[in-house]
Write a structure and sequence with these properties.
19% of the residues lie in helices and 28% in strands. The protein is of the alpha/beta class and 449 residues long. The chain folds into 2 domains: 216 residues, Glutaconate Coenzyme A-transferase; 207 residues, Glutaconate Coenzyme A-transferase. Helix 5 crosses helix 10.
């Protein structure tokens, strides 16, 4: 069997030419080829790179150095707002950003690796991200065309490789890596350990060696991943208002539901779920059967959720890559998604990704989940910090998805869309009807029990 050449990170970085399109695997603190990225950042002769990554320049993981050095001219990905350097580079017109919903990004990479020219998806239809895309109505639903993505080089991270280049991954370290391994002319896999052929069981190999051109053995430490990779009890007190909203959202769930939780208030729902409830938590970066946060430890010892927080895996849990995860979402296999919002309007339109006054640099998986989940519950404070209603006649912020919201839960009220009409069905404890009327700019009907 063919033996794959083994390189140092510095030797691997030498293979990346200037002006190349480079795919970089990873999600949060897991699956990142940090050592190759740091070596590439040492090459001041390699500039004008186009980088395809879920979060280009993840802080502390090497990509930030590439941005700082001015080596990246274009970034294609789904979430950049967590990196101040990326935000600054865009605001100063140092790089061009192409923002793609996370699931669409994963599928575009998969299509590129499978020799498919592109695909149609309902994700992001009717939003500013797809205004220039080709549209098609399929079974009465608007779809947008997305071209496939390929790269000159893919830099990926796996847990183990054998000398033939077969790869296995650890926990949520798969994310974008298996798809990127198929979609580049040259694939360099950074791994924790290289073992002889025959050591890995064929059943556990995720990426066959046919896709891999070079291997880099590099041990990753906590220091390599940055301080956010280690967590413990931070002592922060959750406000009663936010927890009450989360508790009411939890009451909407039933045994057997497969549920995806967004960041913010939705994350609090996870703390209310016990294994006895029979509710299965899904996180889009590749885990079904999410358990509670560990008491201590971090991304070196545990999987992470979509908020990049270390979690545990319950008995019966499974790991998978991002393409499989978003196929679950788009395919209607997620029963409930709980998300935050900036605005929801009378037509059940959702706006939750574009913050006023800030660059449009972070959509993540929100568009995929909003259009793919069977039921969408919005948890949010009733008004903005400026006191303006978030339940509005017509959304004024860039939309996440059209006509998708089923339930809205705030600290004052619970609304449902019944027969297409915004309907007040319940007052939260200590809230009055007059208060809800005064602080809600949208028109609604009342069906209080």
């Amino acid at each position: 069997m063919k033996k794959i050449p083994q390189l140092t990170p510095e030797e691997a970085a030498q293979l990346v030419p200037k002006g190349a399109t480079v795919m970089v695997g990873g999600f949060g603190m897991t699956g990142n080829p940090v050592h190759i990225l740091h070596a590439l950042a040492e090459r001041d002769d390699v500039k004008n790179l186009t980088v395809i990554s879920n979060n280009v320049g993840e802080p502390g993981l090497g990509g930030g150095r590439l941005l700082r050095n001015g080596q990246i001219s274009k970034a294609i990905g789904s979430f950049f707002t967590s990196n101040p350097e990326a935000v600054q580079a865009v605001s100063q017109a140092k790089i061009v950003v192409e923002l793609i919903p996370q699931g669409t990004l994963a599928e575009a990479i998969r299509a590129g690796g499978a020799g498919i020219g592109g695909f149609y998806t309902p994700t992001a239809a009717g939003t500013i991200l797809t205004e220039q895309r080709e549209k098609k109505i399929i079974n009465g639903i608007e779809y947008v065309f997305v071209p496939a993505l390929r790269a000159d080089v893919a830099l990926i991270r796996a847990y183990q490789a054998d000398t033939a280049g077969n790869l296995v991954y650890q926990m949520t370290g798969r994310n974008f890596n298996p798809a990127m391994a198929t979609a580049a002319e040259m694939v360099i896999a950074e791994v924790e350990e290289i073992v002889p052929v025959g050591t890995l069981l064929p059943d556990e190999i995720v990426t066959p060696g046919i896709y891999v051109d070079y291997l880099v053995k590099a041990h990753t430490t906590l220091e390599d991943l940055g301080s956010s990779a280690a967590v413990g009890g931070d002592g922060k007190r959750v406000s009663p208002v936010r927890m009450n909203i989360a508790k009411r959202a939890f009451a909407e769930l039933k045994r057997g539901d497969v549920v995806n939780l967004g960041v913010g208030i939705p994350t609090l729902v996870a703390d209310l779920i016990s294994p006895d409830d029979g509710i299965i938590l899904h996180t889009e970066n590749g885990l079904l059967g999410v358990g509670p946060a560990p008491e201590r430890g971090g991304a070196m010892e545990y999987p992470v959720n979509a908020g990049k927080q270390p979690v545990t895996a319950l008995p019966g849990a499974s790991y998978f890559d991002s393409t499989t995860s978003f196929a679950m979402i788009r395919g209607g296999h997620i029963d409930v998604a709980i998300m935050g919002a900036l605005q929801v309007d009378e037509a059940a339109n959702l706006a939750n990704w574009a913050v006023p006054g800030k660059p449009l640099l972070g959509v993540g998986g929100a568009m995929d989940l909003a259009s793919g989940a069977k039921k969408l519950i919005i948890t949010m404070t009733h008004t903005s910090p400026q006191g303006e209603s978030k339940v509005v006649p017509q959304a004024t912020l860039p939309l996440t998805a059209r006509g998708v919201v089923d339930t809205i839960i705030t600290e004052l009220a619970v609304f449902e869309f019944i027969g297409g009409q915004l309907t007040l069905i319940e007052l939260m404890p200590e809230a009055s009807l007059d208060q809800v009327r005064a602080l809600t700019s949208a028109h609604f009907i009342e069906k209080l029990s």
